[in-house]
Amino acid sequence: xxxxxxxxxxGVLASGSGSNFEAIAAAIHDGRLNATISVLVCNNPDALAxxxxxRLDIPAILINHRDYPSRQAFDQAVAQALQAHKADWxxxxxxxxxxxxxxxxxxxxxxxxxxxxxxxxFKGAHxxxxxxxxxxxxxxxxxxxVIPELDAGPIIAQTQVPILEDDDLSALRARIQAAEHALYPxxxxxxxxxxA
Length: 196
Ligand code: GRF
Hints:
- The protein has helices spanning 19-29, 48-56, 71-84, 101-104, 127-134, 169-192, and strands at 8-14, 35-42, 60-62, 89-92, 111-115, 138-145, 155-162.
- The chain is an alpha/beta fold.
């Protein structure tokens, strides 16, 4: 996908720090990923991701899930915002909401997520803690297509990360995040070019 007109238009969903969002923006800026970020959608008014978007001059929209009566109504509002910004690939980057089929049906096979383990190992919200506690020697990160079942969609790419003897949670998290920041732009490139 080389021409400007075919460039993927990403809608990024983030709930927290947004370091993956910024890594994707950096990859686009450096020419490692042929895409544009149309919009950042955030569900958490305190998320650092919003400040990052402002600094990067990327449109940011706050859609607070607490303002909606149901998961469906919230997902409908998020989908509408993404469509209004012409996003054609949806990139979950620390999005701490479970998505409904209602949402996924708006973007069939075009929703990606990053998870901090080597899936299918350590699904769920405490993947890094769980890997540490299990005493495994390696964990990692995974980019996958999103399906209704949590952390279970087809895998696009993975990076293995070692767990060192004296690792604590923050040391391991930092090592995994560094791997994520390289992996996610690469995986988005594979998916949007039809290679995954
Ligand atoms: C990442 O570790 C990702 O794997 C998980 O949430 C974290 C988000 O970090 N789903 P950030 O907001 O991109 O810094």
